[in-house]
């Protein structure tokens, strides 16, 4: 399953849900498939650079018909270094405004407090995630989406990161424009009431299999608004108030 998923991720090929063949797959097994998929990226010389949380808002869980948060793995090859998204090898990408935490001290366990997370956070960046489920119609069950690395495809960070005390992250308003029209807006609190809670939740989930957030890792905390479908020729501007703006050209 991992080799099929890895190939479809790499080439942007649509596939049937894996649960059609393996309806009894457990969450643990799905994370194992995810881990083995990313091992195949590593075998090709790619490197893991962090984690992403997904489905961290009730609205997002409802719209995807899944009832709990999930995590995925981020690799170097997913990181965009220029604000250009090539449609080549993508299926039906959607863009989400997020925050990315840059962690500089290991975070591990299911007992973390807010203070522990902030002590281990070097900077927070405004960020965009591009998700691209490999499943037809962007439709999946919990275990399907976990096996497909939580729909991870690409991500891009803002030019500048900010120290934890810079602002109240739950009250930052994010507004997304596509081709000049406002399409979505939301506040940081859409992410589990406060983006910092997403890191606590991630650490808890990782701890079930003895994993942790390592120094130097980036964590995408989850979408602040609904994800927006994009197509070739689109131009996105995403405004993060005093944190600045992120742009993306879809080519
Ligand atoms: C799952 C990934 C969702 C987020 O930030 O909520 C996600 C999906 O909706 O395909 O990345
Ligand atoms: Mg996301």
Automatic annotation (TrEMBL):
It comes from the Bacteria. Residues 92-250 form the Fumarylacetoacetase-like C-terminal domain. Pfam families: FAA_hydrolase. It comes from Salicibibacter kimchii. This is 4-oxalocrotonate decarboxylase. GO terms for cellular component: cytoplasm. The keyword Hydrolase does not apply. Keywords: Lyase. InterPro entries: Fumarylacetoacetase-like_C (IPR011234), Fumarylacetoacetase_C_sf (IPR036663), Hydratase-Decarb/MhpD_sf (IPR050772). The keyword Lyase applies. One of its GO terms (molecular function) is 2-oxopent-4-enoate hydratase activity.
């Amino acid at each position: 399953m991992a080799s099929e998923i890895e190939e479809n991720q790499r080439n942007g090929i649509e596939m049937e849900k894996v649960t059609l063949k393996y309806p009894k797959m457990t969450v643990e097994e799905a994370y194992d498939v995810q881990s083995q998929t990313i091992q195949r990226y590593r075998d090709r010389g790619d490197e893991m650079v962090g984690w992403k949380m997904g489905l961290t808002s009730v609205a997002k869980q409802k719209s995807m018909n899944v009832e709990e948060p999930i995590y995925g793995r981020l690799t170097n090859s997913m990181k965009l270094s220029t604000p250009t998204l090539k449609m080549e090898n993508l299926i039906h990408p959607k863009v989400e405004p997020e925050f990315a935490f840059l962690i500089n001290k290991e975070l591990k366990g299911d007992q973390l407090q807010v203070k522990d997370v902030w002590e281990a956070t070097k900077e927070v960046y405004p960020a965009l995630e591009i998700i691209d489920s490999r499943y037809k119609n962007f439709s999946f069950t919990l275990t399907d989406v976990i096996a497909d690395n939580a729909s991870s495809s690409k991500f891009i960070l803002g030019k500048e990161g900010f120290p934890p005390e810079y602002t109240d992250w739950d009250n930052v308003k994010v507004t997304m424009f596509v081709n000049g029209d406002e399409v979505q807006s939301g506040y940081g609190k859409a992410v589990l009431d406060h983006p910092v809670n997403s890191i606590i939740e991630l650490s808890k989930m990782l701890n079930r299999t003895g994993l942790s957030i390592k120094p130097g890792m980036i964590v995408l905390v989850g979408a602040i608004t609904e994800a927006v479908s994009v197509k070739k020729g689109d131009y996105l501007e995403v405004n993060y108030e005093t944190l600045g703006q992120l742009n993306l050209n879809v080519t």
